[in-house]
Amino acid sequence: MSSTSLALLIFGVCYLVIITERIHKTIVALLGAAVMIGFGVVSQDEAFYSHEFGVDYNVVFLLIGMMVIINIVREIGLFEVLAIWAAQRSDAKPFRLLVLLALLTAGLSAMLNNVTTVLLMAPVTLAITKRLELNPVKFLVTEALASNIGGTATLVGDPPNIMIASKAELSYFDFLVVLGPIAVLIMAVFLVVL
User: Fold this and answer.
1) CA 161 to chain centre
2) Residues 182 and 138 sit within 8 Å (Cβ to Cβ)
3) Among 55, 80, 139, 183, which is most exposed with the fewest C-beta within 10 angstroms?
């Protein structure tokens, strides 16, 4: 069996195990990587040091740094302050609140990791919508979509962006110049659709 076929087989088995959700996906991924090294699909040197096949340490350390920053921002209550500001500015008008929370989420997602932004915005949104007796589903779905749009704009907004920029050797500014205007345009269209 060729190394490509073996790699595809290992990947397929790992993917199927992840889909079953019987074993945590991190464990499956690490076991899959170990099996790849064990069967010689990639060498240990390639796995850890190859620029083409190996671990991308730029991505790893940027994600660690983002986790630290997000933890600090969460502890100081920035998300709560910004969400309360949006609620006050909206004068308790649901559509205006929806738009402000969408813009806020998109902006934060461009500066921080988009998944974490939604996870930190959701509890605040639930509290605000409960207080105003509004259906939170519309707000949460809107924030999730806005987060994806905002996260597209910058290098740090989404982990795939980091991987693409690292392999293509793009700077933060290079990435922002190309995708920033597109993300702003998509966000404008999204708000019109709302």
Assistant:
1) 9
2) no
3) 55
